[in-house]
Give the backbone structure.
Amino acid sequence: MDKFSLLTATAAPLNLANVDTDKIIPARFLKTIKRTGLGKDLFWSLRYNEDGSEKPDFVLNQPKYRGAQILIAGENFGCGSSREHAPWALLDFGICCIIAPSFADIFHGNCFKNGILPIALPAEICAELMNDAALGPNARLTIDLENQVVIRPDGTRITFEVDAFRKHCLLNGLDDIGLTLAHAPAIDAYEARQPAWQPAITGV
Amino acid sequence: MTARTLFDKIWDAHVVDRMGDGTCVLYIDRHLVHEVTSPQAFEGLRLAGRKVRRTDATIAVADHNVPTEDRSHGIAEPESRLQVETLVRNVADFGVPYIPVTDARQGIVHIIGPEQGLSLPGMTIVCGDSHTSTHGAMGALAFGIGTSEVEHVLATQTLLQKPAKNMLVRVDGALPPGCTAKDIILAIIGRIGTAGGTGHVIEYAGEAIRALDMAGRMTVCNMSIEAGARAGLIAPDETTFSYIAGRPYAPKGEAFDEAVAYWRTLPTDDGAHYDKTVVLNAADIVPQVSWGTSPEAVVPITGAVPDPAAEPDEARRAQLQRMLDYMGLAAGQALAGLKVDVVFIGSCTNARIEDLRAAAAVAAGKHVAQNVRALVVPGSGLVKAQAEKEGLDKIFRDAGFEWREAGCSMCLGMNPDKLTPGQRCASTSNRNFEGRQGPGGRTHLLSPAMAAAAAVTGALVDVRELA
């Protein structure tokens, strides 16, 4: 996983609430056995016509937002399916930070596992950032994870909350599995005291 | 000792280690694996030279991609075939127990867990699928995870998590005739919204929940994620224990008695704290139908589609209008009488034998309306076999329904069972998102009895009015 520290980039406004993970990446694109290459299918139904041609009005099809690395979205972003293909598709497109009033739990967790920073901010602040984002590349936002601030184009600093452990992992690009394996003796001890009635799956 | 909820007790019993900031190393008792969300996880293990820590706590099955027609010649679609073949290779390489597509026990992962006695009270159960919440009906803490966490569990048998908050949803009184578990959960989601349970685990309680059989409890817990909650839970009781007794992987003899003694300690203590409480009266519940493209966009079948003009908030008004446009509906339109093109009876929400019995009871002696395609997709090979033993397949076939093989089918538009653009479907599945059942498809979520009623009348209809 790549480290996330300081990001200054164009933000794309996606003023929709309840963007579900089927909308981020429909199930028919989940047949891949890889993590990469999903960016072209990101937001398929919003981004393309049935014949595969681009919908010019969709925000990420507009030339000024094609290089956006930050997405400003509506409440409950990422609801629905647990598919990690959703953050993979966002990342493959180039999005590595999402700002919204709220996120669905599973999607929120999946972002951190892939070096994407989801930032929850009050709806009225998101509305202001949405206005900033409407200005395109002339109004880039800066995300400073170390200091937990979003810096607006006019220099205004907005602080945000982030789980300390997840922040640590993101800043250092840490692999969770490696961290957990440091607890191997505790896992061994836990397994040794598991109740005998709990059946093992054998002879399937 | 402080009074604890069912969730608190299961959580506490699975904490392996606790870090300074409250993040826990949480032990996972069961890991269910399917073909869509596991290939990259196994690949990650391979690249790091890691093994599956507990193959005897893990089981794999293919369900999302599999066609639901004759499968004796394999899977025709190359990408789907590759994904299932990749699972077969991965389970062989890593020694993970696997139920093959041709096995009678194959089916939707959330149907076969409880059916095989693999999902038991007090366990932690995970799967790379958000509908893992289904297993909460057993009194287990069960939740969906992403692929990175699938790899994490395969490698360590644990997850790094912080505890969720507790939410109680109590459904008092008795459910009126014609109403089912599906109507309860749709009514709950309609009330609290798709983010109503975010950050929480929902415990369902109250007389109407207690009165449900295990199939009904699974339907309720299944859709917890549609209310934003990662997990739903129902305290285990005699209904749970008698369901489990004798299942293939359930404990037997003395081990079963020992397990039951433990399971009886799990229900929430008197006076335990819930961060949020919602109470519904079962008597107020009417058969529910969704009208929009979010599971919270639900109304009683006796009701009408909302009018965006009545919504003061501009963003919400635009959202309502977008849903109406996508669904091809007019503001204020009644739902009863709306013509459907397809009826889908299946999915991890409603494809157990009890669901098929309820649908067959409505379909018996009637015929699927002209121009309607109706599919019945059992949740597992064993559900299919049981239905055939009871003659339900004959009832469905005689009535003009397609009787198919087990799988996720038309719930998610990933296998050949899909809607075409503009098609309107009465569906017993769990999500009505834009394009969920196929690009441009229009989904109305409802119960199996309501779906069967829509099939035989050709339109959304109040099942209570059908003689």
About this structure: Residues 92 and 158 of chain A are 27 Å apart (CA to CA).
